[in-house]
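1st attempt posting a full record on here, be nice pls
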Amino acid sequence: FSFKIYVHLKEGSGADGLDALKNKPQLHSMVAKSLCQNASGKNYIIFTGPSITSLNLFEEFEKQEIYCCGLLSTRKSDCTGLPASMLNNPETPQSRGQYRIRMKGNMSLICWYNKGHFRFLTNAYSPVQQGVIIKRKSGEIPCPLAVEAFAAHLSYICKYDDKYSKYFISHKPNKTWQQVFWFAISIAINNAYILYKMSEAYHVTRYSRAQFGERLVKELLGLEDTSPSH
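the predicted structure (as tokens):
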């Protein structure tokens, strides 16, 4: 197979340049809309991090029959239109598993306590549906179903990071497009190893991630038969 990776980011101060977009919250919404442009009308549930979670974006997605569940941060999220009373921590102490809810139509804002206050915005789960978070030391902690669902899907990202974060290319160039390029290369190699482990070839050779990366680089550079001293 032949694969190509294209990275197109304009440096500069133009309307579509990075200088004009990098520090604006709208940029994250633009990325989310672009990634979900083919999901309209399919009743998908999208899980989002704090930088993407916002009431305006979720309402826009709902009109396209795309539903959302996102972690909300008073520092990183666009909190426009959300009640201030839910964004402030209550003065009275709370027990683990306690939560407060505010609803507007299908949208729910949940403030859940577990060694700290965590806020979730969702139109994909009913806030009255109960779930549970299982901790190895603490046992079961009650929570709304939206919190359980978010934690379950977040674990995919954590597992990926735990296994492959140390294999990301550490080169840090100054140009933004170069940073994105090497990040994309790192993801491509890690994903290639995952596909390799799912193939029949893995049962024959069983390369580790480090061995796979070394072999891949040698093949790309045509150095398969070169001695270790070179």
